[in-house]
Amino acid sequence: MASVVINGERYDVADGERLIDVCDRVGVYIPRFCYHPNLSVAGNCRMCLVEIEGMPKLQISCNTNVRDGMSVLTDSQKVKEARADVLEFIFINHPLDCPICDQAGECKLQDYYMEVGLYKSRMPQEFKVKKPRKAIRWGSGIVFDAERCVLCTRCVRFMEEVVGKRAIGVTNRGDHEEIALLEPLSTLYAGNLADICPVGALTSEDFRFKMRVWFLSRTDTICPGCSRGCNITAWHKDKKIYRFTPRQNDSVNHAWMCDIGRYSYKEENSSSLILKGWVREGSGTKEMATPELLGVLAQELKGLKGKAKESSVAALVAPDRTNEEIFTVCAFMAEIFGSSRVVLDVPAPKGPKDDLLLTGEMASNPAGLSLFAFRSAKPYTIDAFKQDLKEGKLEAVMLFGDAWEGLEAAWPGMQEAFKALPTLAIFASKRKASFPQARFVIPSASMIQKDGTWVNVTGHVQRVRKAYRLNRDILADGESLGLLAEFMGESFQVGKLEDITKRFLEAIGGLSGASLADVGLEGVSLPSEEQPKHLEA
Amino acid sequence: MEKAIKILTQNFGLEDSHTLEAYTKTGGYQAVRKVLGKIAPEGVIEEVKRSNLRGLGGAGFPTGMKWSFISKPSKKPVYLLINGDEGEPGTFKDRTIMTRDPHRLIEGVLLASYALGAHTAYIYVRGEFTFCMEALGKAIAEAKEAGYLGKNILKSGFDLDVYIHPGAGAYICGEETALIESLEGKPGRPRNKPPFPAVVGAFGCPTIVNNVETIAHVPQILLNGAEWFAKIGSDRNGGTRLFSVSGHVKKPGVYELPMGTPLREILYEHAGGIIGDSPLKGVIPGGSSAPILRPEEVDVGMDFDQLAKIGSMGGSGGIIAMAEGTCMVWALHNLARFYAHESCGQCSPCREGTGWAEKVLRRIEGGHGTASDIELLEKIAKGMMTRTICPLADACALPILSYLKKYRDEFEAHVREKRCPVRPKRAA
């Protein structure tokens, strides 16, 4: 332990911790361009200079480790002057093109200018060294603007240290120095370059000029792309997502995300989603408002109730549903039908896998699904379901979720097998998930339209957040099931999200007593003995 | 005048002074015989400490103290790097040692490596100095042949290999951490400190970087004793150093003189005075990075401490004299252009500041400056000083501030008259 004094306030911190990290944590912000907590220290921008007692020169806080008894000033006159001077140096060869720069609004140069600069330019335009070299397409969705670069080398270090490729380098010297592409980026992590660039030198081809960032609302949520569950921020406006950006979480994804996840936001927008449900009648389909649709489904299910109801109905949950949805479906089946026929071992679709983030399981919650399945002593497996289906025991099947590609890959002829079913209902969000054989397609809330939790590949329970609901026909699965029960003349109390989360965590063990509030922004990890076992295979 | 003491240059007059034969005939490799296996490495460091030998590359850091920063025993190999990247404008001394008396350097390397426990030493030679590399290469081969390098040197059980590493032409590689980067095959960009090279240096191992001239002093210190050496120089500045005198003097050249020799004596006695017996206008005492001195300041004793006291620095010992008739704005612009060109571009203040200063100076010298430009120049210099990884920004800022302080009227005249009032107009 070390005791440090920052601007007169005493803090107890770990000995040897980086000063800039300590300041960040205690809420004393120090401006920086080159420092990034997940990259090595470059110490070249010189913006983070602070005054340390007993040292004649100002020191960069990114390369200073705290020692016991250290006394630091981050807002002294000397520090303020240094910051203003350094910022002016960075500005002199920078173009004044904020109005046409896509970084505007989230640009460190703009921020710091307002904070410590506010001077008039003393550098005539014709003297600027950097000549406009703009909008150079680097490939992999990255656009480079040489003129705006402040040479912090974050991108160089990211490629070298995180991706492991010397694809970006610095050429020339002095004020003619320039960032250059040395070989094609060709990585699934290129999108991060636009995020870590503190200025408008590297921007995202996909996002640029689509929307000014200050018009966008932010929702902190989890990437639905794969079972890593990268922490992200969804940027949206008027019920449309414009981009996903990673959110710092060192126990999951540090500050990165892959491009597959990054651009998966497009699949969460209305053009890819089921906006209104339908029922198949004869050779055609008939669109219906969801309550109406559920009413028709309820009539069919009610008819079953007289028969051997426990054995004639089954449900399948895809590995992209939230823990709460999994729990609710199981509860619904048990309470309404007295049935435990819920298939929980639906495999996740296969996808790319690497050492960095991509897990190869292209669904958001296979771990949650399998953890909940393990709780049951006698699970209803996919093989048992297939057998029942083959033997014609089943009258009605309900499918919950979108990620069926894994099941389809493991079960050739799946669509055919469903054909003979009298009643097949699917509660899905995405158009691509609607089964051609389904008689009922009920719009279910997509990840941006609902609250809940997912468990990631390492057993980290994380929170998905609702930003908006596209229309009144889209319901969360819990709401749909509540209505369905009502139309069947039964009562099914869904309960509050907080309670379901609590009960789910209790059921899987290891995190008993934890609540939704504990999950919070950072998530909570399951103890190692309780971590998902399906991965060991 | 009493007979001057010559240490480094004592053999320069000999024919074939670069050969092993000439060196051994004049007492060469005697220090090695005296020390290796007979005096403990700690004893060698102690002796060098007491000799007041200072780092003659420019910083003037006490050499013995620098050596003591290597913690022993070291789990990793220790490296000794010899800085022969001599690039400071106005400095041309190390090349004379490397070409005329390379064995003196090699013996010094051997002794220093012994003191540090290093078994590999690199001599980093400025890329343009192919002739130095040639001479050194021959000398290393000779020394190896004679058993002064290689395995089990003089049966003492001590091993040492010396390699020559050519630089690639960047001034900044004279800065020790940039030199290490360059040696490792990377672009020459100084490293953040801490960690210091004595802890994490070349290839991640403890490393000491010393200047050629500094190391060439070591054999005589160990042969004649620390007291003998310390007595030659001035207070806390032991021995002699090589002064590279250039500019408007009658006899430019390299002069070996005791530390603390008055600048006036060097200029007017050794270098023969100013060309055409013109009055002196200014003199740079320690390489281009050293703040300039006015004629009334030339009585200063040329050692690190006395020069620091009057606000300049000993630096690399490169003395550049400027006679009346030199335009100080032009001279400063020349320097600024050098620093702008040589800034590695890593730290924002230096990368942008050196270039900016150069542009403002070009403007003033060309007669396009405004009154605010002089203040701007001062602001730029102060803005980049002490705020960067290495001292290159300071090396540019210090001269700017000193010229502005000591020759301000000349800058103002440029702005007022909208032309250079000193230099004759160039033909259109």
**What is the terminal-to-terminal distance of chain A?**
42 Å
- What's the shape of chain A? elongated
Q: Could you state the order of secondary-structure elements of chain B as H and E?
A: HHHHEHHEHEEHEHHEEHEHEHHHHH
> Can you count the beta strands of chain B?
9
User: Can you summarize the main beta sheet of chain B?
Assistant: 5 strands, mixed
The amount of helix of chain A comes to 25-40%
Coarse shape of chain B: globular
The N- and C-terminal alpha carbons of chain B lie at a distance of 51 Å
- Contiguous runs where pLDDT drops below 50 for at least 5 residues of chain A: none
State the share of residues found in helices of chain B, binned by percent. 40-55%
Could you give the count of β-strands of chain A?
25
Description:
The complex is a heterodimer of chains A (537) and B (428). With 537 residues, chain A is α+β, with helices and mostly antiparallel strands. In chain A, strand 23 (452-455) and strand 24 (460-464) form a beta hairpin. Chain B has 428 residues and is of the alpha/beta class. Chain B is 42% helix and 14% strand. Chain B has helices at 20-25, 30-35, 41-50, 63-67, 94-100, 102-116, 130-145, 176-183, 212-224, 226-232, 263-270, 304-309, 328-342, 348-365, 371-384, 392-406, 408-417; strands spanning 78-84, 118-125, 150-153, 158-166, 207-211, 240-247, 253-258, 280-284, 318-323. The longest helix of chain B has 18 residues, at 348-365. The chains are: A alpha+beta (537), B alpha/beta (428). The interface between A and B is medium-sized, with 34 and 30 residues.
